[in-house]
Amino acid sequence: MGDNRRDFLKKMGIAGAGMAMMSSPFMQTIAAQGNEKSIRVGVIGTGGRGRYLLEHLLRLQKDEKFEIVAICDNYEPSLTAALNLSLKYKVKPQTYVDYVKLINDNSLDGVIIATPLHQHAHIAIDCMKAGIHVLCEKSMARKLDDVKAMHDAHLNSGSILLIGHQRMFSNKYQNAMQRIHDGELGQIGQMHAHWHRANDWRRAVPKGKPELERQINWRLYKEYSAGLLTELMSHQIQVANWAMQKIPVSVMGTGSIRYWKDGREVNDNLAAIFSYDDGTKFTYDTQTINKKYGCEEEIMGDKGSFELETNKYYSTTPAKPKAAPGIAQLVGDIQKGLFETVPVGGPSWAPEDAQKYKGESIYEGQKGDGSREEVLGFIRFIKQGKCPEWMTSEGYYASIWTLLTEQAIDSGQMVTMPETYRI
Ligand SMILES: NC(=O)c1ccc[n+]([C@@H]2O[C@H](COP(=O)([O-])OP(=O)(O)OC[C@H]3O[C@@H](n4cnc5c(N)ncnc54)[C@H](O)[C@@H]3O)[C@@H](O)[C@H]2O)c1
User: Fold this and answer.
1) Atom 28 of ligand 1 has which residue's CA nearest to it?
2) How many domains does the chain have?
3) Would the pLDDT of 330 be above 90?
4) Is the distance from CB of 302 to CB of 280 less than 8 angstroms?
5) Is residue 31, in this structure, part of any structural domain at all?
6) CA-to-CA distance for 410 and 267, rounded, in angstroms?
7) Any domain includes 14
8) Contact between 309 and 323 (Cβ < 8 Å)
9) Could you report how far apart the first and last alpha carbons of the chain are, in Å?
10) What is the CATH number of the domain that holds 84?
11) Ligand 1 interacting residues, C-beta cut-off 6 A
């Protein structure tokens, strides 16, 4: 999968420095590399995510040399909102409705693309061909061939292609991944992730303009999106692959529109199982009617496990808790006794005890989800003229396996990756 991550971390001064260094923030090390030259950047697609990233850019300008020279959106309310946001920070970028004009009018060094999924590939490829470095939101493209074409354009142009998986820039995830790769969890046997929500995932369409439904709610229509797969799972398969330092060999899955029967075309719930070549499984599920279990990635090894979203590490051999108070001990003994004197024909098993201890934090001090660091990282990568290749590969394979999962669900077949998509 591209450059060796350990080499990258070594170059960045993180690897091999032990626990003390591991708590040193990843991005501080990146930030230690020169802030001399100013660069010119723009944002294409200034809807919800585009404006969020734009605001990070606007805030970063206080400490970092770069200019936000142009913004583009083909939906007037989004463009106006982005301009107003910029003006609040006393920045006045040129506004464009047509991204081609934005490319031609400005000698940009870098661009953030946050358009809907089906509007990623051609814009990113045009930008890279014009010598502009690209941070493109996940997932990469609606079609497998377009994902590959984006990667080819990156290789042929030499332009950076960073995909918006912000967890790669989170100190918490960086720290956890280094510990996994250093063997702290022992042998990984299984990984599980889920993303559960309890809402219809709809955006309000302006009154009297029903013709905007598909444009605004593009996530719900197959022409533009693979729904929960490209929008949510893409992040979590990236985390699983990152933990494994390899890609799966197969995926199978199932999904349906179970609850939100409102004209949407994408599944409102689904489950998938990925297998890696060493037998490790990554099981995944997402749904939109109950959020009790929220969003999580669990990496389980024979020495310990991580719950990454909630920042938890659990050893399989934690330091012994203090002796249980007498009464609790007594209750425990009685319960144990019950299971030990199973009557013939009764239950022949006792459930595995889940660990009772509350675990430890993986990393303290991570604010936010890594998006700020991602934007700063992108600016720094532009100044350095390169981005670590493994980061591009992570985005690439997360996108490929997301779309292969869609194939598996739609066909009901186990799916493997055609060799043409190997990079
Ligand atoms: N990394 C994350 O955590 C995260 C979170 C949310 C969204 N996203 C990603 O960000 C992207 C955008 O999502 P969103 O929620 O902001 O969607 P959105 O619909 O709110 O915004 C998309 C914007 O792009 C504009 N647009 C569409 N086609 C365009 C074109 N050809 N040229 C210029 N502008 C165009 C739309 O008018 C809209 O304003 C998606 O790829 C999504 O997956 C990532």
Assistant:
1) 115
2) 1
3) no
4) no
5) yes
6) 10
7) yes
8) no
9) 8
10) 3.40.50.720
11) 44-50, 72-75, 78, 99, 114-117, 119, 137-138, 164, 166, 231
